[in-house]
Design brief:
single chain, mainly alpha
Length: 414
């Protein structure tokens, strides 16, 4: 018996019935079959090429420049899969459609590869697990539970809901952080511009006075004259620090220092704590509601918590549960969890409704994050205006102090 040739990933550009140019990818056993598959979708192919022949694309992928899927891409793909599977579309056809429709190149390619492996007999979760850089751990495990329990559509719906909620949470935090970061950057650039361009014009004027400058003006002139040295040094240090952090941010010692500082820092610390609690309770509720065993759920949520402090608390709880003790008890020993959270978790354990209690905690803290982000934005705006205005004002006063002193001296002589 002759074996069927292995299918190949083809990319294409075609024109739809409305005349719009669309792009996509599909698995086919030959280029002719790929062209036929494009036509079968009601499209007029402009070109169809073997993905491996696209040298530039392949080189970019090897170098890691392919755009990784975002939460939005994963949420949309999960929602599409849930709807199609619930409607009776076969898994292979579902994966093919999602691979063609997703806008993210890396995710589309991954779904096409997953479809090929599923067609060869692999389970969906196993095929996803081989691509951990594309598919998050929580998605893989929920899919595995859905496959085992026969409710894959519901599991994918939970995945989509989780990613959508997480995306809203991230957007709220980014929105709250964006304004102060932008204002501070503008303030720093303004100060450097004054030191480099404005102060030197006054320095020549000061030399003609023939008198000792006031201390604030001396400091300003010294900073300005040495700016050609310390400004480049600061830029190099900032770039080097950014590169070092990007390479070492997953190290435990770095995560410990950064995440501990985040939850303890003034003003923003409360917001970060609320985000961490919302993420923990939501992920834990989804895992338990899907039927994941307690110990496995704790270990998984610890890995996807995205916060070293929460991860350590969950690892302590995992050890507690493994030894037959309550889940809530170790959580109470960590400052990141308020008493209300640990008490509600304890009540959920005692009543056998831990997943529902965690869901309630998640919903409460999702609202708390929204409120805290809005309050933070409105509170920090006047503080930043006063801060930036104070620095610029102090520099201007320091520049004009010698002129004021000279005017006073002349007035005294008169």
């Amino acid at each position: 018996m002759t074996e069927a040739p292995e299918s190949t990933l083809y990319v294409y550009q075609a024109r739809n019935a409305a005349g719009k140019v669309v792009k996509g990818r599909l698995q086919a056993q030959s280029q002719q079959a790929a062209v036929g598959a494009v036509r079968a979708q009601g499209l007029t192919p402009l070109w169809v090429k073997d993905n491996s022949s696209l040298g530039l694309n392949r080189d970019l992928n090897i170098q890691g420049f392919e755009r990784k899927p975002k939460l939005k891409d994963l949420a949309v793909a999960s929602k599409q899969m849930a709807v199609m599977i619930a409607s009776g579309v076969t898994l292979l056809r579902t994966l093919e459609i999602v691979a063609q429709q997703t806008e993210n190149e890396a995710l589309g390619k991954a779904f096409a590869e997953v479809q090929r492996e599923v067609g060869q007999g692999s389970s969906l979760s196993a095929a996803m697990e081989r691509r951990p850089k594309v598919f998050p751990l929580i998605m893989i495990n929920l899919v595995r539970v859905g496959e085992a329990g026969g409710f894959l559509d519901s599991a994918l719906e939970s995945v989509a809901d989780n990613f959508e909620t997480e995306l809203k949470l991230q957007q709220k935090v980014k929105g709250a952080m964006a304004y102060p970061i932008v204002v501070l950057c503008v303030a720093i650039l303004s100060i450097i511009a004054m030191l480099v361009f404005v102060v030197p014009t006054f320095e020549g004027l000061f030399q003609g006075f023939g008198r000792e400058l006031p201390l604030p003006t001396q400091v300003l002139v010294t900073l300005s004259s040495s700016a050609v040295i310390w400004v480049p040094i600061l830029i190099v240090l900032a770039v080097a620090g950014g590169i070092w952090y990007s390479r070492n941010k997953h190290e435990d010692r770095v995560r410990k220092a950064v995440d501990t500082a985040k939850v303890k820092m003034p003003i923003f610390g409360k917001l970060f704590r609320k985000v961490a609690i919302a993420r923990f309770s939501r992920n834990m509720a989804i895992m338990l509601a899907a039927g994941v065993p307690m110990l496995q759920a704790i270990g998984l949520v610890a890995k996807v918590s995205n916060n070293w402090v929460v991860e350590q608390a969950l690892l302590d709880s995992e050890e507690s549960v493994r030894n037959g003790r309550p889940f809530a008890q170790p959580l109470a020993q960590h400052e990141v969890f308020p008493p209300m959270v640990t008490q509600m978790v304890a009540v959920g354990e005692d009543s056998g409704s831990l997943d529902q209690m965690l869901q309630s905690i998640s919903e409460f803290y999702d609202r708390e994050v929204e409120t805290a982000a809005d309050q933070l934005t409105s509170m920090i705006e006047p503080l930043l205006i006063v801060f930036v205005g104070g620095i610029i004002g102090a520099m201007v006063i320091a520049l004009y102090l010698p002129i004021f002193n000279m005017s006073s001296a002349i007035g005294g002589l008169g």
